[in-house]
């Protein structure tokens, strides 16, 4: 499926972003409006709209996103203190960009959500 989103342009380096990891499956880059000292977005290199579009065919990408996030957390020295991983999904989940993305947040003690 094609998608002309900002994240696709970042992956393809058509617009600038602070990319900290890229492999043949995913791209990780700094969030432009960080909500914590470390705020990194991790996205598949191919379009998936939201968590609702995870299926039998593409589900392995999610484990690769988690594995990469954990490695980035270790590289950024936030793994011992701790961090938070968030996927927002659609309107009620607060998803603003229609392209599956994982938020990795750390470097500060965050309020509990519940
Ligand atoms: P959402 O609210 O959809 O879960 O998260 C979208 C995230 O994308 C937000 O945290 C927002 O700051 C980030 N974002 C939006 N546009 C850009 C951009 O052009 N570059 C980067 N690096 N992040 C962006």
UniProtKB/TrEMBL annotation:
Query: Which InterPro entries does this UniProt record tie to the protein?
Result: Histidine_triad_CS, Histidine_triad_HIT, HIT-like, HIT-like_sf
* Sequence intervals crossing the membrane: none
Q: Which residues form the active site?
A: 101
Question: What positions does the domain HIT occupy?
Answer: 6-114
Q: What is the lineage of its organism?
A: Bacteria, Pseudomonadati, Pseudomonadota, Gammaproteobacteria, Enterobacterales
| Cited SUPFAM superfamilies | HIT-like
Native organism: Buchnera aphidicola (Artemisaphis artemisicola)
- Cite the GO molecular-function annotations of the record: catalytic activity
Recorded superkingdom: Bacteria
Which PROSITE patterns does the record match to this protein? HIT_1, HIT_2
Q: Which CDD domains match?
A: PKCI_related (cd01276)
State the protein's name.
Answer: Histidine triad nucleotide-binding protein
PANTHER family assigned to the protein according to its UniProt record, in alphabetical order:
HISTIDINE TRIAD HIT PROTEIN
